Amino acid sequence: MRKILSVICVSCIFTVFYSQGAKKSSKKVLPCYDLNEVLKVQATALYQPHLNTSKSFGIQLLKDSRTVQKYINNGKFHKVKKSGKGYRVQKLDYSRAWMVSKAKMTLESMGTRFSKETKGHTFTVSSITRTLEDQCRLRKVNSNASLGISSHNYGNSFDISYVRFNDQLRNNLKMELALEKVLKYYAAAGRIYYIKEKQQSCYHVTVRNY
Question: In percent, how much of the chain has pLDDT > 70?
Fold first, then answer.
């Protein structure tokens, strides 16, 4: 009789724990952002061209890792190397080193031109492609991060630090002026838009669909 009761008790305990586990696993994990609220945020007149050109690449708003992976799988996103001629990519905690082909090639071309202008120096890329999930995580540590849609959310934007050159964090007016010269060249050629962000100490660069 005791053996039978023991078996029944063990069975009951297993059933309770299993059902609780099933409930937990079936619980929907909510995103850390409210898409409706994100879409309500209006872009400034200065930033609007960045968003307009971003949407012209045929990339849907990147919400999470799954969306990014879809574009990697179908060959629309290309891996950005950690370093190349004239540039270095710093450790990316809140963005991903993947971009549309034209953006990747433009970054590499800008690096080559910067290297030529400065006789071998490098600039630092501080952020690349971000999902809405990435952006939400970033806002938790940086209140200046965009509340609305960012051109980073489409895979054709990146940030270049103007206080970090040759892997050294310090002001370097000569290098900064050389970088600005490169940016102006590509902007005049109709290949990029850029904004100097003082709070982030970087140039926000969006590659146009030229």
Answer: 80
Distance of alpha carbon 79 from alpha carbon 65, whole angstroms: 15
Alpha-carbon torsion (42, 47, 52, 57), positive or negative: negative
Q: Are 58 and 97 in contact (CB under 8 A)?
A: no
Residue 14 has pLDDT above 80, yes or no: no
Instruction: Return all residues near 71 (Cβ < 8 A) that are at least 6 apart.
Output: 59, 77, 98, 155
The pLDDT value given to residue 187: 98
pLDDT at res. 29: 58
Task: Outline where 27-157 has alpha helix (H).
Answer: 35-40, 48-54, 65-73, 101-118, 132-139
CA–chain centroid gap for 134, Å, is 7
Query: Rounded to 10 degrees, what is the CA torsion of 170, 147, 135, 33?
Result: 160
Q: Which of 83, 84, 77 is nearest to 101 (CA)?
A: 77
DSSP conformation class of 80: P
Indicate the SS3 state at residue 22: helix
Torsion angles phi and psi, residue 172, rounded to 5? -145, 90
Give tens-digit pLDDT for 85-135: 999 999 999 999 999 999 999 999 999 999 999 999 999 999 999 999 998
**pTM of this prediction?**
0.82
Q: What is the DSSP letter of 71?
A: H
List the one residue out of 184, 187, 193 whose CA is nearest residue 117: 184
